[in-house]
Recover the amino acids of this structure.
C-alpha cells in the first residue's frame, strides 16, 4: 500500500469540520494544528499545508511558512484572513496640533539630491484641521521633514501612526523616519495619492537602518523607545527633477487591536528600501494582498488541470484574487540597465485558474506553481472564500481533496521559454523551447513532451522526470517556414505521463499585445501632468510612432475593431489619438527657441542631448504621414526642422576637430572629436562639443526624413547633410550591435541609390547585427533596459528588404512570442501589471518594452508603416 502524504491543517476548531477531515483522510495522513492553542508550528515533514482560518495566523508562523515554500512545499490557503496583519485602530490621540509642537529638519542623505529647490512651507486647513503643505514650483524638493516628539506617547498598545496626507505627480512616496531613545534610525514609507487620504502605518513596518538580511525577520521597533518621528521627503526614493508638493494633517497615534507584526504593504516597497541600502523582508507572504471583496456570486470551474475539483454554487462572500502584486517603482537614475534591479528570475511562475465568478469572469480561486529563484518548485492554491461559509459543504470538501491530491501527485509544466539554437555553419537556426517540468511524486516518471506551434512546428520527445523535483528540458523545433503566421499563432506544450496529462497553451496575437502596450502607456501617462509616459522621452517617442500608424491602420481596416474586444473595453481609438497628440504637443510647446527638445530627464539642469532629440525628431517626422490636421502637421514639421538646425550646430568639421584636439585632448584621444561626428548636447548654455559615433546614428534618420519632407531650400540643405553623413557613417563601418544603429543603417539603405553603400550596409548588418542575434541568448530583448527589443524592427526590415531566411525567422519568432504570450511572466501584459508607473529601474524597462515593441509590432502588422514613403 502506498504511503500517504502528510497534510497539515492549520486553523481553529471552529473553522474545520469532520466532513473535510474525513474527506482528506482518504488520501492523506491528516494532522491538525489549532492556532488558538499554540504559537508553534512543525512543518518539517509536511508535504502540503492547508490554511483554514478566520483570523490572522500567529506571527511566529510566518517565517516557517516562508521557509516551507522556499524548500518547495505546497500551500492551500482558504480566505484572506491568515495573512491579514493590517492594523485595526481604535482610541487615536493627537500628537501634533501644528502650532508649536513640531520642528522642520533638513536631512542630509548618502546620495546628494543634486539641483533641487528649498520648498515653501505653508500652514493649511484640511477638513477644519491644521496641517502643513510643502511646495516647489520649478524643480524637485530638497530633503525636508516634519519632526514631532513622541517620547512617552507611543506604547505597546498605541503602536500605529495615523495621519492624513496628499501627494502630487512627482511626490508619490512619504518617507517616515523614527529616531529611538538610543539615537538609532528606523525607516518606513507610505505611498501617496494625489488626493487627501488617511494612512495607518504600524511601527512594526519600520526597518532598522542598515538591515541587510532579507530572509530573516528584523527586530521590531519598540514603541515605548521612540523619541521622535519625522515625515516628509527622502530624495533617494522619489524622482526629484520636477516641481512637487505634499501636505500633512491630523497626525495621531492609535491603538492596534490586531497583531503587532510587519504588514503585507512591505511586499510592494522593496525598491524604496533598496535605494536606502536596506533589505526589505522577503519572508512576508500574502497572496491575498489587495484582493477585492465581493458578495453574492456564482462560482464555476475554470481550466482543465483541476477539472476533477468541481464546485458550482452560490457564495455569499468572496474575494477576487489579484494576478500580481504591483510594485512601487525605483527611482535611481540608470538602474534600468543594472542586473541588481532585474527581478525577472524571481517572478517566474505559472498561474492556473481553478474557479471564477461566472458573472464577471474574475478569478476567485487560482493555483501558482513557482519556477523562479524564489520559492522554486513550491506551489500555492488560493481560494477567495470565507472558510466559515464553505467548510461544512460537501462539495467544497470534495473540491479541496481533489486540488490537494493533484498538487502532490500530478506532474506539471512550470514554465515554457522561447529561445533559439546557436548558429552553426551550414545549419539553419531553429526555435528552442525550454520546458520546465515539476514532478511532485515520490518516484521518477516516464513522460512525453508534445509541442505544437500553430500546427506547423511540431515535436515530441520522451523524458524521465526525477522524483520530487523539477527539471528543464530543451526541445528543438523544426525550421520556421516562410509562410509562418507571425501576427497570430497558437502554441501548446503537452506533458503526458501515467499520473495524468498537463497542457500549457496560449495564443500569441501581436495586435492584442500591442493594444495592451498602448493601454499601459495611456495609463502611465495619467501618472504625470505634462504628457510624458516616462522620464525618457526618446523611448516614449517610439510608442507614439506606433500609435499614429495604428490609427491609420484602423482607418484602412475598420474590421479590426471587431477583434480583441476585451482590449477595446479598456482603450479606444480616441484614447490613443488624444494620448499620442498630447505627447507631440508637449514636445513642440516645450522645445527651446534654439530647437532643442526636452528629454524627460536633466530638465532641472536644462540638459539637452542631440541623440535623444534625434529619436524624438524622427518619431515626429515619420508620423507626419498620419497627421490629418494641416495646422498640426505644419507645426510638427517646423518643430523637427528647428531641431535639425539646432543639432547641426554640434557638427564637428575638420577645422573644429583641430581646435578640439587642443581644447579637449582627452576626448580627442578617445576618438570623440573626429571630423564627421556630433557633440553630445548642452547643459544650460554650456555645449558638449565632443561625442561618440552613436550620436550620429541617433540623428541621421531624422535628417533623412527632413530631406524628403521639408521643402525648398530647407529640403536641399538636409539632402546635403543626409548625403554627407550617410557616406561618412557607412564607410566608417561602425558596428550595429546596439538597438538603434541597425535602424539608422536601414534608413540610409532605403534612401541611397549608391550600390556600393548598399553593399557595405548589407555586409555590416550581416556581420555586426545578425551574428550577435544568432547566439541563442535567452531573454536578450530585455537587455539594456529593454532597449534591445527594438532589434526586431531592423530584423523585419532585413527580412523584407534584404533576405528572408530561417535564421531571421527563428529570431523573430523569439521576440514576437516573448512580447505576446500572456501566460509568461515576462509578457507585456504581466509586466504592465507589476510596474504600472514608470520611473526608474525595472519600471522604466517596462515603459521601454511597451513603446519600442509597439513599433516593431506595428511594422509587422502594417509593413513599412514605421518608415516614410521613400
Amino acid at each position: 500500500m502506498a504511503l500517504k502524504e502528510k497534510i497539515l491543517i492549520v486553523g481553529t476548531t471552529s473553522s474545520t469540520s469532520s466532513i473535510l477531515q474525513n474527506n482528506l483522510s482518504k488520501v492523506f495522513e491528516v494532522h491538525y494544528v489549532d492556532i488558538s492553542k499554540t504559537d508553534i508550528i512543525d512543518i518539517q515533514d509536511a508535504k502540503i499545508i492547508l490554511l483554514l482560518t478566520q483570523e490572522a495566523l500567529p506571527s511566529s508562523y510566518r517565517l516557517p511558512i516562508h521557509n516551507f515554500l522556499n524548500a518547495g512545499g505546497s500551500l492551500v490557503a482558504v480566505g484572506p484572513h491568515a495573512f491579514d496583519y493590517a492594523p485595526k485602530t481604535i482610541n487615536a490621540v493627537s500628537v501634533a496640533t501644528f502650532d508649536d509642537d513640531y520642528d522642520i529638519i533638513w536631512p542630509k542623505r548618502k546620495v546628494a539630491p543634486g539641483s533641487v529647490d528649498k520648498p515653501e512651507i505653508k500652514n493649511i486647513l484640511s477638513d477644519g484641521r491644521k496641517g502643513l503643505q510643502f511646495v516647489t514650483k520649478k524643480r524637485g524638493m530638497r530633503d525636508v521633514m516634519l519632526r514631532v516628539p513622541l517620547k512617552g506617547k507611543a506604547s505597546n498598545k498605541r503602536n500605529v501612526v495615523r495621519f492624513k496626507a496628499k501627494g502630487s505627480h512627482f511626490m508619490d512616496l512619504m518617507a517616515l523616519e523614527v529616531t529611538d531613545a538610543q539615537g538609532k534610525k528606523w525607516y518606513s514609507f507610505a505611498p501617496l495619492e494625489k488626493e487627501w487620504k488617511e494612512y495607518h502605518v504600524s511601527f512594526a513596518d519600520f526597518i532598522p537602518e542598515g538591515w541587510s538580511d532579507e530572509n530573516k525577520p528584523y527586530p521590531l521597533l519598540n514603541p515605548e523607545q521612540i523619541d521622535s518621528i519625522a515625515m516628509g521627503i527622502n530624495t533617494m526614493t522619489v524622482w526629484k527633477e520636477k516641481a512637487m508638493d505634499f501636505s500633512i494633517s491630523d497626525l495621531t497615534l492609535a491603538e492596534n487591536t490586531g497583531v503587532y507584526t510587519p504588514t503585507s504593504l512591505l511586499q510592494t516597497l522593496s525598491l524604496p528600501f533598496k535605494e536606502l541600502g536596506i533589505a526589505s523582508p522577503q519572508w512576508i507572504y500574502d497572496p491575498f494582498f489587495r484582493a477585492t471583496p465581493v458578495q453574492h456570486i456564482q462560482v464555476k470551474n475554470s481550466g482543465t488541470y483541476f477539472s476533477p475539483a468541481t464546485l458550482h454554487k452560490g457564495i455569499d462572500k468572496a474575494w477576487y484574487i489579484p494576478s500580481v502584486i504591483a510594485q512601487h517603482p525605483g527611482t535611481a537614475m540608470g538602474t534600468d540597465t543594472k542586473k541588481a534591479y532585474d527581478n525577472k528570475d524571481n517572478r517566474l511562475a505559472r498561474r492556473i485558474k481553478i474557479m471564477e465568478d461566472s458573472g464577471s469572469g474574475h478569478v476567485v480561486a487560482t493555483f501558482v506553481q513557482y519556477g523562479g529563484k524564489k520559492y522554486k518548485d513550491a506551489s500555492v492554491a488560493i481560494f477567495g472564500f470565507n472558510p466559515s461559509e464553505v467548510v461544512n459543504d460537501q462539495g467544497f470538501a470534495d473540491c479541496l481533496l481533489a486540488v490537494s491530491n493533484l498538487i502532490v501527485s500530478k506532474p506539471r509544466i512550470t514554465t515554457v521559454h522561447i529561445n533559439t539554437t546557436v548558429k552553426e555553419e551550414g545549419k539553419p537556426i531553429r526555435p528552442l523551447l525550454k520546458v520546465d517540468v515539476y514532478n511532485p511524486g515520490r518516484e521518477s516518471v516516464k513522460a512525453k513532451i508534445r509541442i505544437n506551434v500553430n500546427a506547423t512546428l511540431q515535436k515530441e520527445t520522451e523524458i524521465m522526470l526525477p522524483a520530487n523535483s523539477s527539471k528543464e528540458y530543451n526541445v528543438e523545433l523544426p525550421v520556421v517556414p516562410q509562410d509562418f503566421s507571425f501576427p497570430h499563432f497558437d502554441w501548446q506544450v503537452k506533458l503526458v505521463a501515467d499520473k495524468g496529462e498537463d497542457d500549457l497553451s496560449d495564443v500569441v496575437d501581436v495586435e492584442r499585445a500591442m493594444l495592451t502596450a498602448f493601454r499601459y502607456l495611456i495609463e502611465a501617462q495619467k501618472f504625470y501632468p505634462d504628457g510624458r509616459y516616462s522620464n525618457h522621452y526618446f523611448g516614449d517617442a517610439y510608442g507614439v510612432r506606433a500609435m499614429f500608424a495604428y490609427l491609420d491602420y484602423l482607418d484602412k481596416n475598420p474590421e479590426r475593431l471587431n477583434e480583441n474586444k476585451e482590449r477595446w473595453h479598456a482603450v479606444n481609438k480616441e484614447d490613443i489619438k488624444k494620448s499620442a497628440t498630447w505627447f507631440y504637443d508637449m514636445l513642440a510647446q516645450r522645445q527651446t527657441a534654439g530647437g532643442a527638445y526636452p528629454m524627460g530627464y536633466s530638465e532641472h539642469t536644462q540638459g539637452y542631448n542631440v541623440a535623444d532629440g534625434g529619436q524624438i525628431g524622427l518619431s515626429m517626422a515619420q508620423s507626419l504621414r498620419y497627421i490629418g490636421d494641416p495646422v498640426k502637421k505644419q507645426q510638427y514639421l517646423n518643430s523637427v526642422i528647428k531641431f535639425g538646425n539646432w543639432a547641426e550646430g554640434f557638427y564637428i568639421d575638420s577645422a573644429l576637430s583641430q581646435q578640439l584636439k587642443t581644447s579637449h585632448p582627452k576626448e580627442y584621444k578617445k576618438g570623440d572629436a573626429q571630423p564627421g561626428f556630433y557633440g553630445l548636447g548642452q547643459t544650460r548654455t554650456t555645449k558638449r562639443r565632443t561625442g561618440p559615433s552613436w550620436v550620429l546614428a541617433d540623428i541621421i534618420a531624422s535628417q533623412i526624413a527632413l530631406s524628403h519632407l521639408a521643402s525648398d531650400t530647407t529640403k536641399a540643405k538636409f539632402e546635403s547633410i543626409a548625403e554627407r553623413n550617410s557616406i561618412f557613417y557607412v564607410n566608417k563601418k561602425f558596428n550595429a550591435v546596439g538597438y538603434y544603429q541597425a535602424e539608422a543603417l536601414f534608413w540610409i539603405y532605403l534612401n541611397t541609390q549608391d550600390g556600393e553603400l548598399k553593399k557595405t550596409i548589407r555586409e555590416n548588418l550581416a556581420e555586426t547585427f545578425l551574428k550577435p542575434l544568432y547566439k541563442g541568448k535567452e531573454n536578450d530583448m530585455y537587455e539594456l533596459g529593454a532597449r534591445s527589443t527594438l532589434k526586431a524592427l531592423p530584423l523585419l526590415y532585413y527580412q523584407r528588404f534584404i533576405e528572408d531566411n530561417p535564421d531571421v525567422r527563428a529570431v523573430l519568432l523569439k521576440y514576437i512570442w516573448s512580447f505576446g504570450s500572456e501566460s509568461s511572466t515576462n509578457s507585456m501584459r504581466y509586466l504592465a501589471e507589476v510596474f504600472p508607473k514608470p520611473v526608474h529601474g525595472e519600471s522604466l524597462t517596462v515603459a521601454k518594452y511597451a513603446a519600442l515593441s509597439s513599433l516593431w509590432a506595428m511594422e509587422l502588422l502594417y509593413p513599412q508603416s514605421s518608415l516614410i514613403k521613400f
